[in-house]
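hiii so um. not sure if this is the right channel but i have a protein structure encoded as tokens and i wanna go backwards to a sequence. like what aa goes where. can anyone help
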């Protein structure tokens, strides 16, 4: 059986409902094997459908219960969208992409991307570009591309003269 990503539509959130009932009854889990652990990406929105918070979990009810008790944005949450992914690695990638794309008001992680990234300077330029597109903002990449098109703007240091023996006349 192939496990596919399953997205459920945005729905009104009943913040007073027991946490385990947030997805029931209309949003049932995908029909995956009973032994499979469910991995969720969840997105909370305010009454104007502006993203508040995007997260991931393998224990949806307990994680949402933490938000209910501790998150300053919880009283603002009016809608939720949930997606199921086959693996934890899949939800990590999806969460990061969703946060960087939607820019939720209360997320702190992945909003600006990492301050630094290791960029391979030898080998495949495509691999370096893939890393930039994964880790950097579109604005930064655009600005960098403009600068890279101006190599004369960045003079390189002159190398030392060729090495010679002391008794060479030239």
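sure thing!! here u go:
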């Amino acid at each position: 059986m192939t496990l596919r990503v399953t997205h459920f539509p945005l729905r009104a959130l009943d913040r007073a409902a027991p946490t385990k009932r947030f997805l029931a009854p209309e949003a049932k889990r995908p029909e995956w094997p009973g032994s499979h652990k469910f991995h969720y990406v969840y997105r909370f929105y305010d009454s104007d459908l502006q993203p508040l918070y995007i997260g991931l979990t393998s224990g949806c009810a307990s994680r949402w219960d933490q938000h209910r008790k501790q998150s300053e944005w919880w009283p603002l949450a009016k809608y939720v969208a949930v997606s199921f992914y086959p693996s934890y690695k899949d939800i990590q990638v999806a969460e990061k992409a969703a946060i960087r794309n939607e820019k939720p008001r209360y997320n702190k992680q992945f909003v600006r991307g990492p301050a630094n990234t290791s960029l391979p300077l030898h080998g495949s330029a495509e691999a370096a570009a893939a890393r930039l597109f994964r880790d950097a903002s579109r604005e930064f990449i655009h600005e960098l591309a403009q600068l890279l098109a101006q190599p004369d703007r960045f003079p390189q240091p002159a190398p030392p003269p060729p090495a010679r023996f002391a008794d060479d006349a030239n």
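oh and Helices lie at 60-70, 88-102, 125-135, 138-148.
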